[in-house]
């Protein structure tokens, strides 16, 4: 009896394993058959595709400019005083009464201005002074970066094209290709 029991259990286990294999075959039957295969193609050309963008920035430069500045080192009042006295004397010679007083004052003022102008010209001089002038402008820096590569490759006497994010190699080199074969119903 014991032997029969062990035989039945062994038969049951073998039968269960056979049904499990049948389920896998059933799943394959529902899906179309596909085989994957690796092969190699020959690279015919590689063309980098560039992406270009601009980046604005400020570009500044400094220039030194020379300007002439009039300087009055030591004011000389001698010419102003002499001109004022001479103008007052001349103005006093003109007119009578109240007109004589007005002419004297006018002569004094005009004489002082003329005397100041004609006084020592070396007291007033023109000095060259340098100052820095800063000029800025906006400049666009253009940058280019490889975005991807357009690859033309030959497989079994047919030319195909694709884009790749990495450099595939030089023309004439082999590149791996994956073939997927499906059954046609």
Q: Tell me, rounded to a whole number, the average pLDDT.
A: 78
**Percentage of residues in helical conformation:** 25-40%
Neighbour order of strands in the largest sheet: 3-2-1-4
Total beta-strand segments: 4
Count helical runs: 3
Order of helices and strands: HEHHEEE
Structural class: alpha+beta
Bin the strand percentage: over 45%
Shape category: rod-shaped
Major sheet: 4 strands, antiparallel
Mind explaining what this structure looks like?
It is built from three helices and four strands; from the N terminus they run αβααβββ. The protein is α+β, with helices and mostly antiparallel strands. It has a domain at about 75-120. Strands 3-2-1-4 form a four-stranded antiparallel sheet, with no helix packed on it. Strand 2 (about 125-155) and strand 3 form a beta hairpin. Helix 2 packs antiparallel against helix 3 (about 100-120). Residues about 20-25 have low confidence and may be disordered.
How would the blueprint of this fold be written?
Layout: H1 2-30, E1 34-72, H2 78-92, H3 98-118, E2 124-155, E3 158-164, E4 174-182
In short:
By secondary structure, the protein is an alpha+beta fold.
What features would you highlight for this structure?
185 residues; alpha+beta; single chain; four-stranded antiparallel β-sheet; rod-shaped; 35% helix
């Amino acid at each position: 009896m014991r032997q029969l029991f062990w035989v039945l259990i062994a038969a049951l286990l073998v039968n269960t394993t056979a049904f499990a294999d049948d389920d896998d075959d059933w799943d394959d039957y529902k899906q179309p058959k596909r085989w994957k295969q690796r092969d190699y193609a020959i690279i015919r050309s590689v063309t980098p595709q560039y992406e270009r963008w601009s980046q604005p920035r400020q570009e500044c430069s400094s220039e030194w400019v020379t300007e002439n500045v009039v300087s009055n080192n030591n004011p000389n009042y001698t010419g102003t005083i002499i001109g004022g006295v001479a103008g007052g004397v001349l103005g006093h010679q003109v007119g009578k009464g109240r007109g004589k007083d007005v002419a004297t004052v006018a002569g004094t003022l005009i004489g002082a201005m003329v005397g100041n102008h004609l006084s020592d010209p070396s007291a007033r001089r023109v000095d060259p002074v340098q100052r820095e002038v800063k000029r800025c402008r906006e400049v666009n820096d253009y940058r280019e970066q490889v975005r991807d590569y357009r690859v033309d490759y030959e497989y079994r006497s047919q030319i195909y094209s694709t884009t790749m994010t990495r450099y595939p190699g030089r023309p004439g080199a082999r590149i791996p290709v994956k073939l997927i074969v499906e059954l046609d119903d």
